[in-house]
């Protein structure tokens, strides 16, 4: 595979999702969300910052939101490529996809889970990300980006997987300048209108491998010291019959996931590191329902607390 091929693959995922023969409320609203994001990329963002130059970078921390956004970004990149060669007399296979790797920035500030680090490595090669990794523990987030821009002087805009329901997310816009205490560049935030259930619906349908922490009950991942599995997903003894009243809202997406030949309940997650298993075991937090069992946006960060 190369970046063009994985972009085409992501395009096929979103196209297949949009034609899904299922009218659950979550899937319907996710289709609307996908179309809005797609319009942002194709009509507003790519015509302004050429995605085949080094004007745009992608901010990536291995989380579910930026992975869902990455799938959409690559899908749109493929569409943008197809439209750019439309005028040519030669069929698509005669055109070279103009990008070999995607400029990506990961601010590696705090101590992270080994499972997340390994999953970032997997996605790095899966999606041909050329990851700039900031030196750990050296800088604040704005300083780290200042550093990034000093190394990548052509960067004008950075894509961010933030949503309205995130802390301080409510008043953000899809395209806006950074605040005055940040280095100056354009923030590109085309996932703002996505709910937690939209993110899970697309991600689980995509059949792409996701970070293994989510299967262990994490819903939002911060540093090792500040994140535990979501308490609302704790399995209580003997309550397995009714899943504590929790329901998997994504059975259809999982069973009919893109590229599955037979419907199965398997979700592709990255390997769960034994060192993280030890951390969770010591904290007594090993027995949780998967993160995607939680779809209430207001509870997404309930696992963010000091141990
Ligand atoms: P998460 O869901 O963890 O993150 C939301 C998204 O932020 C991720 O999908 C990813 O795209 C990006 N992101 C988060 N952590 C990292 C990381 N360690 N490395 C790389 N990307 C990451 N705040 C301001 O107040 N003013 C600003 O002008 C401003 N500009 C920003 C510009 C960029 C490029 C980024 C990435 C962040 C900026 N922020 C700014 C901070 C932003 O609003 C969020 O607070 C921050 O991204 C953390 O998100 P979260 O942990 O709440 O949510
Ligand atoms: Mg998030
Ligand atoms: Mg975060």
Which labels suit this protein?
binds magnesium ion, 307 residues, EC 2.7.7.2, globular, single chain, nucleotidyltransferase, binds flavin-adenine dinucleotide, alpha/beta, 35% helix, Rossmann-like_a/b/a_fold, nucleotide-binding, 8 helices, 6 strands
Structure description:
- Helix 3 links the parallel strand 1 and strand 2 (102-106).
- The N and C termini lie far apart (42 Å).
- The protein has a domain at 207-299.
- The protein contains eight helices and six strands; from the N terminus they run ααβαβαβαβββααα.
- The chain is 35% helix and 7% strand.
- With 307 residues, it is an alpha/beta fold.
- A six-stranded mixed β-sheet has the order 3-2-1-4-6-5, covered by helices on one side.
- The chain has helices at residues 3-18, 25-45, 64-84, 114-126, 141-151, 196-206, 251-255, 274-282; strands at residues 56-59, 102-106, 129-133, 157-159, 175-177, 186-188.
- Flavin-adenine dinucleotide binds next to helix 3 and strand 2.
How many helices does DSSP assign? 8
Query: What's the SSE pattern?
Result: HHEHEHEHEEEHHH
Structural class: alpha/beta
Shape from CA axes? globular
Distinct compounds present: flavin-adenine dinucleotide, magnesium ion
Compute the separation of the termini in Å. Answer: 42 Å
What Rg do the Cα atoms give?
A: 19 Å
* Percent in strands: 5-15%
Strand line-up of the largest beta sheet: 3-2-1-4-6-5
> Tell me about the biggest sheet?
6 strands, mixed
Low-confidence stretches: none
Helix content class = 25-40%
Mean pLDDT level:
93
Number of distinct beta strands: 6
